Amino acid sequence: MTFKRRSFLKLLPALPALSFISKPEESNVPPRISMRFIVASDGHYGQPDTDFKTFHTDLISWVNREKMQKGVDFLFFNGDLIHDDPTLLYDFKNTISNVSVPFYVSRGNHDKVGLDVWQSTWGYPTNHSFAKGEYAFVIGDTSNEKGEYVCPDAKWLKSEIAKYSDKKGIFVFLHITPAKWTVNGIDCKEVIELFENTPNIKAIFNGHDHDQDSTKIYGKKPYFFDGHFGGNWGTTYKGYRIVEIYEDHTWQSYQYNPTAAPVLNSFTGKS
């Protein structure tokens, strides 16, 4: 059949409409990650009868791989950096200098060093905080030079948290959990009530309990555990926790086993 030019021209006005009708719907693009960090705890550098050097080499390798594959803004060591002997702190610091991301630390009950040594080693005290963009990170001390379990300084926490009242979110790091919901936790009622009554506190991260890698909830606040990457007891695997904050201010956290690669105990937080 011959297709005449006049017939073709009659079709032209309809073509834009056809194009409009057939236009596919725009896909829902997930929000992009604006910040991503790792929390690891209880490496116990120098603990006798453990392969502590390999534990730390492995963690450094895992974090550097995360940095290359998905990006990591910083790493947080949530206590028990070393195992009792204060002279190990320099060796620990020298070892982790091979990690390719900025890192921060908190003091655990096995980090039996004085406040002056801690300050001179890290450049900040055991109670400290920092901010990155729209988020703040507050670190409380839960031990002392003797290695005793102590509640964090509630007065200091309240004052420090108040400095960040304009931030979208605050994340808190405490080596020892401030609730007696684990064998090794301690009851710090004033502290957990402070957290519960501070709207922009998003989550609290705890170490210390090597056998805990889950999420516990007090009121509306999640408390995250990250197992361990060193030591001689705890979860059957050595791992760490990931936190991803998105551009729409939602966020998620999950535990990660880098040798088997499963995502464990995922939690999604609101803006």
UniProtKB/TrEMBL annotation:
Residues 35-211 form the Calcineurin-like phosphoesterase domain. GO terms for molecular function: hydrolase activity. InterPro entries: Calcineurin-like_PHP (IPR004843), Metallo-depent_PP-like (IPR029052), STPP_CPPED1 (IPR051918). It comes from the Bacteria. Coiled coil: none annotated. This is Metallophosphoesterase.
